[in-house]
Design brief:
Layout: H1 2-20, E1 34-37, E2 40-43, H2 48-65, E3 76-77, E4 96-97, E5 100-103, E6 106-109, H3 116-127, H4 132-135, H5 144-157, H6 165-168, H7 182-199, H8 206-215
Length: 230
């Protein structure tokens, strides 16, 4: 419960940063200024104005909540053509570095220091996880999941593919890497939804689902077509 309460308490700060800090834009995607997981907050700045706005947001939130940033446990990663002398000055005596930064236990920075296990964590916990809420209820366009999977595998290898992708999907105790397989996860979502429909009665969407099931292929299927196993 404490984690949930903290998430509610920090939401005003995140909203303030999102509103006032412009952040960065990567490959034509919408601007990103802040990302948070519990008390681990990452802020993206692109100029001195962003840094000043961030300082103002922190001061405002601190005055209202008495919460303070632990700068001793904070880090800053400098990306792009900036030199350390040209980069904006950071609050709390924080210094820029260009070697790498650890976020949620994952190292970001030079590809040479990113292990295979670290790449799996990035793919499973950061990249693929952004798809789950949509894929749980929607079907992806033809070929989209295969293309995303191809790019995830390419990121894992970062060069020469030494093994077939199917080997990477195996758990580590079976010689694989535990890399997520998008198609398998979507199939698991569908099976779980079918299980809930067949064996749970307190579903607000049950009648709509039964109507769609009866229309599927004009076969007139319903719950009675799938009797429970004895």
């Amino acid at each position: 419960m404490s984690g949930q309460l903290f998430s509610l308490a920090i939401e005003p700060l995140l909203g303030l940063i999102w509103k006032r800090v412009k952040g960065v834009r990567i490959q034509g995607s919408p601007c990103v200024s802040v990302s948070a997981y519990a008390d681990d907050v990452s802020v993206f700045v692109s100029n001195r104005v962003d840094v000043q706005e961030l300082e103002d947001c922190l001061q405002t939130y601190s005055a209202a909540s008495s919460a303070k940033v632990n700068w001793g446990k904070s880090g800053a990663l400098l990306c792009g053509p900036w030199s350390s002398t040209e980069a904006p000055r950071l609050p709390g005596g924080l210094l820029w570095n260009k070697t790498g930064l650890k976020v949620l236990g994952i190292h970001f920075g030079s590809a040479e220091v990113l292990s295979y296990r670290g790449r799996v964590l990035i793919i499973n916990n950061l990249a693929a996880s952004t798809l789950w809420h949509r894929l749980a209820v929607l079907n992806a366009p033809p070929g989209l999941l295969a293309e995303i999977q191809r790019r995830l595998v390419a990121f894992f290898w970062s060069g020469q593919h030494w093994l077939k992708a199917a080997v990477l999907y195996l758990p580590t105790h079976e010689g694989g890497q535990g890399l997520i397989d998008l198609e398998s996860r979507v199939a698991a979502f569908r099976l779980k939804a079918a299980q809930r429909l067949l064996y749970h009665s307190d579903l607000c969407w049950k009648e709509s689902a039964h109507a769609l099931l009866r229309m599927a292929g004009r076969m007139g299927l319903d719950r009675a077509s799938f009797p429970p196993q004895c």
